[in-house]
Amino acid sequence: MAVELTEATEGEHPDIIALTNRAYRQAEGQTAWKVESLVAGQRIDASLLAEDLAQPGAVLLVARDGAGERLGHVRLDDRGDGAWFLSMLTVDPARQDAGLGRAILEAAEAWARERGARRMAMWVLRQREALIAWYARRGYAPTGEEKPFPYGDARFGVPTRDDLVFVVLEKRF
């Protein structure tokens, strides 16, 4: 499936926030491995999104089909020297299991490569083994680096356990 990525407008932010929170944290209607059940509450809010997008090189892209219907979104950060970071890859839960996650990921990689990306990194909770395996099938591999979960900052949600840590995955183009 072909998707088109366009930069999100500020007017789209409320819908993007709502979709992100639903896709990441509400299990209803979703396969268990697709939901971040290790963390309760919100995934993002308006202040966190604004803070994220204020970072140099950050862009929020909306994925649409040929008819212009919104399918999901992804955030990319140009970190310089060919290094990019991917986060908040989101597919509308009502449209999952149709290859959209893969299509949005491929479109995001192409978008970044057209702008000089030579590698793409992301963080995934170490405990989300099925998600890590999904990214591995798409060429992402653990770098050996880990990042701490932001315990105590409710803007990222409320962890349901005390051993959460992110592994860094990377793909070279």
Oligomer: single chain
Strand order of the largest sheet: 1-3-4-5-6-9-7
Low-pLDDT residue spans: none
How would you classify the helix and strand content by structural class? alpha+beta
- Shape estimate: globular
The biggest sheet amounts to:
7 strands, mixed
Q: How many helix segments?
A: 4
Helicity range: 10-25%
Radius of gyration: 15 Å
Number of strands: 9
pLDDT averaged over residues: 90
The N- and C-terminal alpha carbons lie at a distance of: 21 Å
Helix and strand sequence = EHEHEEEHEHEEE
| Estimated share of beta-strand residues | 25-35%
Fold blueprint:
Elements: E1 4-7, H1 13-25, E2 39-40, H2 46-53, E3 58-64, E4 70-78, E5 83-91, H3 100-113, E6 119-125, H4 129-136, E7 141-148, E8 158-159, E9 165-172
Parallel strand pairs: 5-6
Antiparallel strand pairs: 1-3, 2-8, 3-4, 4-5, 6-9, 7-9
Describe the structure.
With 173 residues, the protein is an alpha+beta fold. Helices cover 25% and strands 32% of the residues. The protein has helices at residues 13-25, 46-53, 100-113, 129-136, and strands spanning 4-7, 39-40, 58-64, 70-78, 83-91, 119-125, 141-148, 158-159, 165-172. The strands form 2 sheets. It has a 7-stranded mixed β-sheet, with helices on both faces. Strands 2-8 form a two-stranded antiparallel ribbon. Helix 3 links the parallel strand 5 and strand 6. The radius of gyration is 15 Å and the shape is globular.
